[in-house]
Amino acid sequence: MENLTLKLRGMSCASCASTIEEAVHSVPGVSECSVNFGMEQATVKYDSQKTNLEAIQDAIDDAGYSASSVQDQEMVTGEDDAEKAARKAESRELLIKVAVGGVISVILIVGSLPAMIGVNLPWIPAWLHNPWFQLALTVPVQFWCGYRFYTGTWKAFKHHAATMDTLIALGTSAAFFYSLFATLFSGFLINQGLTPQVYYETAAVVITLILLGRLFESRAKGQTSEAIRQLMGLQARDARVIRDGQEIDVPIKEVQIDDVILVRPGEKVPVDGEITEGRSTLYEAMVTGESVPVKKQSGDEVIGATINKTGSFKFRATRVGKDTVLAQIVQLVQDAQGSKAPIQRIADQVTGWFVPAVIAVAIATFVTWFNVMGNLTLALITTVGVLIIACPCALGLATPTSVMVGTGKGAENGILIKGAESLELAHRIQTIVLDKTGTLTVGKPTVTDFVTVGGTANHNELKLLRLAAAVERNSEHPLAEAVVSYAQSQQVKLVDAQNFEAISGSGVQGTVSERFVQIGTSRWMEELGIATEALQERKAAWETEGKTAVWMAVDGKIEGLIAIADALKPSSAAAVKSLRRLGLEVVMLTGDNQKTAEAIAREAGITRVLAEVRPDQKAAQVVALQEKEDKIVAMVGDGINDAPALAQAHVGIAIGTGTDVAIAASDLTLISGELQGIVTAIQLSNATIRNIRQNLFFAFIYNTAGIPIAAGILFPIFGWLLNPIIAGAAMAFSSVSVVTNALRLRNFQPSKG
To answer: Are 306 and 269 in contact (CB under 8 A)?
Structure first.
């Protein structure tokens, strides 16, 4: 199976999206097709052995639309030049037609005022309301400005379909051709006892207002992808590469893997890589969402598009082009924006039958008023009003525009959302399961305490630390690395050890400056016959706190005790508190023993602990919460062994600093690795779903109330009749109002409390 993204042309409303989906689904080998009306894109999953791009494009062409394959966009330009030019040309054409239609519409309205209000106005020349003059003015608006509605109607008709263009063409044509008949055969109407009224201004104004609405809608929809453009704009344009000993500036697309690149203060890091020389502080907020600059030195990874603040450094390129973190972020956001949320199914079901239903209502309206009242003018006005005011565009835009803005806003806050379904489901989470190592904790053992039998007199502590580090630096064990790192942080000068030996499961030993040093477990010390009573109380206290105690003996005598722990991330406790404030049950999942797990959980503010869980049991624990307790469960993890549980959970949340496997199995990714991002994601989900519901409410209410009023339901009671011009204005701005409401999400700010 292969995935394909297509750029669509010729869509006018959500009904067009349904038509294209049906056409593509009819192609043998296509398993999925989702059309996003807001983005004018289709995502297709198909079997490459049964069909191909050309067959899918042919099916779309046969349905009356066109499609082109979306290639990998260049990070430098941010978008395809041809697409950009086409969008500008379309906006320019709309603007010209709106201007021409606007001027003519004003003249027609002024000329029609005497007929509208039934009073002769001496300041309006008689030739302005002459039917032949109004006909001459209306023709270019009807057939030049409104040309797109006729072509759209014809394409739909050829494929036995009806779209928004069909409604507009029928409504304005009814007003225009009735007026033309009244102009050409006014005598016939008079002989029939009818007043030869014309409605040229109705046809012209409605077309102009609808074109104006589409112009505003096009510009507003363009703003929903602002996050994508901002992300693409972060990429550096050039890189200073060192080749053959020379520094040369090359375009970003010419950088190759293993190139050595020089970055100076204030410059952007061009691509992803690993520092080989120098140190600096980098500002990574544009990628991770973290506002605090990060210190980097030799061996550390750097991310393309981040900003170098202080020092100069050289780094080796490890990922370039579409493989960089930024490029992958952009791709994930684009995929998410093109996906459909489950809540959109309601709108899709409605738009599938909406246009044919409106045409049926319009016909029934005309027949009813003409037969009951015997009034052709009343029948015409109500029929045109029904055709014009019915707008499924607002329904089609209600969900995708909010999803586009919401996913883009997530990326700005360091949260990658893989699909609209995840974004919708996040606000329904009831239980959140947090893996301990690397999620709640830093994921790297560190020395938290170091005490000696002799105390700190005469710098005894630093002397012993120097001995310990000298032996441990020969070991590859994570605990040994923690001791060496701690010694370096205390400015201890490292020396060499002789006769080093590692005793499996027990500890290490060696000779430093003619002193015999042994570092290891309590059991080993007992086996060696070394007394440990002096620091037993401290050891017990540390273990209660969830720390690992390591003994240090020098020349056969206990001299010190080292506490090592995988410390909580600074933000973990605050994030857990925020999650509980949101009403979520927080559960910690770990393979640690119960005592250690409970100590870490207490520090983090977690009351429920699932301890001593093997890696292959994590997914089963999630299933138990889902099925036995009937909860909507989110799983947060960072390791390879978390991937099955992440995939099993209703919402899988990966720590971006973790493994690629975990990230691939998840629905949301926290780029910075900070748990506060979970709170932000849930708040963003709440805000987005609330916005979508507002859009759907307004869209449904608009059509539910607008169509009966246009059909004249209030006329027998109050004598109120909806002018088709007002109906056109309401239809034109309904879509704009939905998109504008969605754009309010751009003001979303996560709560810090």
So the answer is: yes
Q: Is residue 710's pLDDT more than 50? A: yes
| Of the options 3.40.1110.10, 3.40.50.720, 3.40.30.10, 3.40.50.1970, the CATH number for the domain spanning 446-565 | 3.40.1110.10
User: Cα(68)–Cα(627) distance, rounded to whole angstroms?
Assistant: 45
- CATH 1.10.340.30 correct for 413-441+569-685: no
Element spanning 707, H or E: helix 676-710
Return d(Cα 563, Cα 565) in angstroms, integer.
7
Q: Yes or no: say if 590 and 435 are a contact pair by the CB < 8 Å rule.
A: yes
Confidence of residue 732 (pLDDT cuts 50, 70, 90): low
- What percent of the chain clears pLDDT 90, i.e. is strictly above it? 20
How many Cα neighbours within 13 Å face the side chain of 386? 23
Residues 228, 580: Cα–Cα separation, whole Å: 33
Residue 685 CA: distances (Å) to CA of 410, 434, 592, 668, 678: 9, 19, 33, 11, 11
711 close to 369: Cβ distance less than 8 angstroms? no
Any idea what DSSP says for residue 441?
A: B
Token look-up 């067959």 returns: 55
For 606-638, the pLDDT digits (tens) are 999 998 787 778 888 999 999 888 889 999 987
Evaluate the CA torsion angle 579, 585, 588, 594 in order and state its sign.
positive
With CA atoms as reference, report the closest residue to 336 among 230, 225, 222: 225
How far CA 662 is from CA of 165, 302, 640, 692, in Å, comes to: 47, 21, 6, 30
* 244 assigned to active site: no
Coil, helix or strand at residue 247 = strand
Which helix (H) or strand (E) covers residue 260, if one does?
A: strand 260-263
Residues 6+ apart with CB under 8 A from 559: 452, 453, 454, 464, 552, 553
Q: Could you tell me where in the chain the CATH 3.40.50.1000 domains are found?
A: 413-441+569-685
* Domain 256-319 CATH (choose: 1.10.10.10, 2.70.150.10, 1.10.760.10, 3.30.1330.10): 2.70.150.10
Would you call 124 helix, strand, or coil by DSSP? Answer: coil
Domain with CATH 3.40.1110.10 in the chain: 446-565
Give the predicted TM-score (pTM) of the model. 0.65
Q: Pick the catalytic residue from 165, 335, 435, 592.
A: 435
Q: How many other C-beta atoms can be found within 10 angstroms of the C-beta atom of residue 524?
A: 18
Mean pLDDT of 452-469: 81
Give one DSSP letter per residue of 42-87, joined into a string. Answer: EEEEE-TTT--HHHHHHHHHHTT-EEEE-PPPPTTTSS-HHHHHHH
570 to 438, 603, 673: CA distances (angstroms) = 12, 11, 12
